[in-house]
Amino acid sequence: MLDRVKLAQECKRMAGSLFIDNSSEIIQAQHAWQQIADDASIAKRIAAIDAPFCLPSWLGAIGKKVTVNNKIEQYCIVSVDGSQIYPDRHRGPSCFLINIGSIMFHYGAQSHVRLFSQPHIFSAHNQENEHMSTDMVNCRRQELEFNEGLKQGILLKSHASNDPFLLLFDGSLVFWLLESKDSALQSLFLPLYIQALERMYQEKIPIAGYISLPKSRELVNVLRLTLADFSPKKALDHDLHLIFDNTVAGFFLQTGERTTVFKNNASISQEYPDHLRPYFFYINVGTEISRVEIPNWIAQDERLTNQIAHIIIDQCLKGYGYPIAIAESHEAAVVKGADRDFFYHLLDKISIDRTHQTTSSQKSIRKRYIGF
Length: 372
What we know:
By secondary structure, this protein is of the alpha+beta class. 43% of the residues lie in helices and 19% in strands. It folds into two domains: 70-216 and 242-333, archaeoglobus fulgidus dsm 4304 fold; 337-369, no CATH class. An eight-stranded mixed sheet has the order 4-3-2-5-6-10-9-8, with helices on both faces. It has a two-stranded antiparallel sheet with strand order 1-7. The protein starts with a helix and ends with a helix.
């Protein structure tokens, strides 16, 4: 049981570490931003620097902003999300469950919605001899999310709708999950992810990844170099570790505006084919400044990029600050405590039907009966 009195004391003790004043860093960042915001030559200077941190690429002035003012009344959007039950060595057979949820909204004269949910069970015997780790489950979930998005996108196109369309994912299109993992996971999943993105490209399905409250620091790294007279070594002394790119974008973006489009230069992005390489922009949706990631083939099409920005703004309006399609796909995918109990109940029942006794650890049994 949580001792609330002691918790209040602990929160008070940690207040100085939990809530840090970043005003001095913001002043430094604003000063650096004023120096470079309208300077189109900065992009070339940054491109020529070999820095030990990630820097973006872009064309024109870094402070360019685009007003998203053409509201789209009629469009289609599909969003896909996943949830999971990780392997539990204390319960039943060695397996895990991934539930993929998706939703399609069609806005227009005949608006309608379609909700979909599909569970997938994986056992230790069909994981290609890979250990069923948390990383394995997360990688498999992303694969299924991409495949379901591709399936729903093709299905929507088959209905011959000429309305603007977007396939929107929750999170990054950069495979950060694989960047620091061993070569076995990379060699297994990276080709699968690239294959799904390639099919989306071939089918001309517009896709984007939406990141709420982003913690990216590419623009901050540009400011660090600016403060250090573009010396990578000196830039390490200008950490600016308390602010992120959305803070920088907040210096100049008003509600309904987006930044120019930037190229992501993370090492994992080098593994993508050029036309699928991740690009990104920041957008002020009114309640926050979010990051939107798109593949290169979309980034090179300003009309399509603006169309995606328009749809995202509208989704955030409908979702009270957050894209309603992502929120609803999450609800379709989420596996709650009662769902977890039902899953293991089914495994127990099937084991009895197949005259195979499942075993649960005493720890698991004890936890289930605490409180009764």
